[in-house]
């Protein structure tokens, strides 16, 4: 049986050819099968945790035994130094939560290439928000045009987000490395940041929540199961230490995650109920999803059937279509970030990499096996990266491991850029066709990123038997029903030592002002 292990890895890549220093976080998925050593001969080293011990990447991961695709590198002028933190541990296994480690000056200038005037943009955003708040669903219109053949769509394969206007391109914004836009945080600046907040006619306070058990840990915080003493309902509380958020330069990322989660409401995305802070920590209250991670079920099963994979892929497509309609890119799609609810339906979680996007962004972030080619090549990326990640996810669900794997990140990137995929002999040919059309290196020809957007994905033959309104309304029968005995059940999550809680350190008033709008 294929067993997967989760690693939390931080590393900094120094790109000599472009003279750009970028910080990235990798969540490394490895497997207990034996893989042959990488043939690229890389001797990159890492600094484990906060210690100064140097260890080779090959010593961190158990090797797998499948043929390694021979690839050529397009990064011959690139050097790399890696720094990573190990995340949570369960026995001898290491796993963890995700966050990006970005330098404030790491990213190039991010420009707005849109052809539309500012008034038109504002009207479009307003209309999008109205549509989102009413939970409207785009109807899939039947058409006689064949939108599935990549080669036949050259006339329609322009990237709608890549249209360049010379006047608008002169207006640029500096990406501060925290990967958020100034206007996004300004929108929240007038809101109350006290511990006492009204929502839906109710006032919340930290004293209303009783912490029961830790269900996840990360680099600068943890997620706990809590009970709301007022409603007697269970919820998840994400606790982030402000000292660590500041030290890791994650201020804007954390605020950006909070702002996006406040905006979205969809059946297949996690719901933020409330957020606040005290003198030491940031707090976010979510609905508690007690079924555990899709990652766990995939690890235990080895791989999923085409029917099971189709079910989860459809719910993800519905969620991505919704997020993209709000100009939000997710950028961290993978089994570890898909929770299974008690009813068997998914909830996408961890929006730390999500961003409200007007055109393109150059921030390098994500999980190596799921990173799209345009991110690796620093060409700027947009919503197309989510469709690439969907192709990787479908492959991983059907096969049991991602299509691009190597013991070292650079080896993974080489394989991604080569575009070579090893296909299982008995893979569903229709699912294989969809994966091929999602894993197209040229994003302008990638399914989901062309003229018809997500509708092209929805109309693919693999989804032909689906009614997308039924998908949205959760009328389909889930293939997996978690073993859950009550709403506060934690048996589907790993156990964590409650002795690991560190004393909270109050930050000074100057630093506290950095979180005024939280």
TrEMBL record:
Return the Basic and acidic residues bias intervals: 113-123, 151-161
User: What is the originating organism of this protein?
Assistant: Drosophila hydei (Fruit fly)
GO BP of this protein? imaginal disc-derived wing morphogenesis
Question: Record's CDD domains?
Answer: STKc_PRKX_like (cd05612)
Q: List ligand-binding residues for ATP.
A: 238
Domain AGC-kinase C-terminal per the UniProt entry, residue ranges: 464-518
From the UniProt annotation, give the residues forming the signal peptide: none
Biased composition (Acidic residues) is annotated at 175-189
Q: Where is the composition biased (Polar residues)?
A: 89-106, 124-149
Record key words, sorted: ATP-binding, Kinase, Nucleotide-binding, Serine/threonine-protein kinase, Transferase
Instruction: Give the Pfam families listed for this entry.
Output: Pkinase
Q: Which GO terms describe its cellular component?
A: cAMP-dependent protein kinase complex; cytosol
Its recorded name reads cAMP-dependent protein kinase catalytic subunit 3 isoform X1
* PANTHER family in the record: CAMP-DEPENDENT PROTEIN KINASE CATALYTIC SUBUNIT PRKX, CYCLIC NUCLEOTIDE-DEPENDENT PROTEIN KINASE
Q: Which GO terms describe its molecular function?
A: ATP binding; cAMP-dependent protein kinase activity
**Ranges for region Disordered:** 88-199
Has UniProt tagged this entry with the keyword RNA-binding? no
Q: Domain Protein kinase: where?
A: 209-463
């Amino acid at each position: 049986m294929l067993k997967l292990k989760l690693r939390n890895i931080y590393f900094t890549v120094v790109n000599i050819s472009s003279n750009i220093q970028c910080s990235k976080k990798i969540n490394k998925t490895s497997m207990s099968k034996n893989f042959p050593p990488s043939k690229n001969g890389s001797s990159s080293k890492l600094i484990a945790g906060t210690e100064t011990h140097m260890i080779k990447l090959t010593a961190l991961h158990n090797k797998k035994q499948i043929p390694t695709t021979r690839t050529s590198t397009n990064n011959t002028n690139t050097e790399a130094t890696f720094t990573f933190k190990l995340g949570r541990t369960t026995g001898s296994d290491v796993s963890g939560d995700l966050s990006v480690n970005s330098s404030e000056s790491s990213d190039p200038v991010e420009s707005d290439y849109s052809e539309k005037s500012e008034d038109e943009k504002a009207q479009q955003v307003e209309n999008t928000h109205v549509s989102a708040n009413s939970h409207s669903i785009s109807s899939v219109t039947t058409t006689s045009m064949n939108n599935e053949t990549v080669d036949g769509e050259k006339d329609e394969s322009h990237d709608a987000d890549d249209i360049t206007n010379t006047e608008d391109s002169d207006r640029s914004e500096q990406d501060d490395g925290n990967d958020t836009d100034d206007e996004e945080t300004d929108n929240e600046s007038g809101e109350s940041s006290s511990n006492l907040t009204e929502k839906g006619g109710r006032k919340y306070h930290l004293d209303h929540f009783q912490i029961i058990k830790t269900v996840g840990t990360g680099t600068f915080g943890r997620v706990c199961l809590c009970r709301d003493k007022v409603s007697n309902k269970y919820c998840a509380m994400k606790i982030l230490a402000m000292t660590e958020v500041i030290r890791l330069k994650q201020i804007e990322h954390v605020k950006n995650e909070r702002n996006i989660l406040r905006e979205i409401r969809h059946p297949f995305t996690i719901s933020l109920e409330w957020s606040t802070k005290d003198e030491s920590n940031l707090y976010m209250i979510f609905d508690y999803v007690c079924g555990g991670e899709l990652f766990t079920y995939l690890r235990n099963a080895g791989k999923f059937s085409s029917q099971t994979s189709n079910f989860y892929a459809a719910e993800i497509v519905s969620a991505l279509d919704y997020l993209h309609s709000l100009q939000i890119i997710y950028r961290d799609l993978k089994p570890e970030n898909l929770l299974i609810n008690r009813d068997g339906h998914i909830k996408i979680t961890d929006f730390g990499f999500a961003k409200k996007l007007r055109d393109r962004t150059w921030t390098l972030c994500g999980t190596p096996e799921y990173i799209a080619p345009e991110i690796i090549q620093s060409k700027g990326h947009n919503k197309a990266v989510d469709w690439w990640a969907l192709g990787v996810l479908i492959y991983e669900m059907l096969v049991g491991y991602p299509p691009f794997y190597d013991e070292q990140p650079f080896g993974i990137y080489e394989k991604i850029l080569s575009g070579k995929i090893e296909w299982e002999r008995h893979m569903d040919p229709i699912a294989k066709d969809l994966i091929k059309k999602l894993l197209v290196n040229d994003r302008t020809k990638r399914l989901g990123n062309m003229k018809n957007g997500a509708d092209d994905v929805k109309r693919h033959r693999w989804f032909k038997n689906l009614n997308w309104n039924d998908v949205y309304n959760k009328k389909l029968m889930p293939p997996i029903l978690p073993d859950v005995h009550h709403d506060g059940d934690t048996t589907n999550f790993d156990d964590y030592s409650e002795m690991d809680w560190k004393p909270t350190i109050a930050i000074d008033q100057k630093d506290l002002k950095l979180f005024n709008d939280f």
